[in-house]
Amino acid sequence: MPESTEAKKVYRRLQEEDFKLTRQRRIIVGTLLRCRDTHPSAEELHQLVREELPEVGLATVYRTLDLLERLDVIRGVNFGDGRTRYELTSELHQHHHVVCGRCGRIEEVDEDLLGDVEDRIAERTGFTILDHDLKLYGICLDCRQTIEDDDAGSEL
Amino acid sequence: MPESTEAKKVYRRLQEEDFKLTRQRRIIVGTLLRCRDTHPSAEELHQLVREELPEVGLATVYRTLDLLERLDVIRGVNFGDGRTRYELTSELHQHHHVVCGRCGRIEEVDEDLLGDVEDRIAERTGFTILDHDLKLYGICLDCRQTIEDDDAGSEL
DNA sequence: ATTACTGCAAAACTTTTGCAGCGGT
DNA sequence: ACCGCTGCAAAAGTTTTGCAGTAAT
Question: Where would you tag: which of A23, B24, B65, B111 has the fewest CB atoms within 10 A of its CB?
């Protein structure tokens, strides 16, 4: 697996800030880039990383996630399932999350429609708004289909 | 402390659903109503409840929170500080949270401006949207004042 | 060579669970 | 009197930390 330009950008970022570029960090960054659409938790990421380098410890994954978060490469998001999940900040030009309450699938919606909402709230509260986080909860198309099929079955 | 009509409404709710109205549950409900604007965590709530009835166990608090959440009396919210905080659902006609990243203060904004955003996202993703959660992160007025004062001091 | 980084194990912290006894109904 | 609820303590799950050894610069 050749290393992407994106990975190299992160490596450079680490070195600029005088952090060492270890094998573990390279693999963790690579894995995060490869999982860009799955929002992995620390534990899930750890499993994937171990496929490539089995002796990596979970603590290293946590420490690296912490580091990458401080470098603003990734960002922790909480979907209320008891663990922090991570996404690349480069993805978030500005997007929202749509979570299916049945199967847990998370989709992203690239669109920022919240500019004027922010302005209005800033005015009303006196806060300086720096960021926002919008999650929408519902049922995805597949699950709705399944539910409807089940209903049809039980109605006979 | 006389029991509010609101508390009584919750008690009735519990009994309708065949749950027993224990002293612990009454006190927990009362405390939640009294803390409506603080978004307490289970542990914080437990401390407050113990002021009134010291032998209440933390597990009971968790179990009661769980029950009240299932009865849709309260709702867990995650502000990313590692513990679940709770708010009354009666408060959420539809509101958003504004969190100060410096002092942690949470303010609520009562206004729902997201109807058409929801519609657009439903159309685009195929999801049936049932609910949403908008958090805004920034710096509150007091903290900005403090920061500016500090800056002024260090500039001399 | 230096010293940041790692793996492991232990600790810390939030939340859940098992069980014997208590208390609403 | 029944059986749901409670307190306690133990367990479970996620994240953090201490430390001795390893590896990047």
Answer: A23
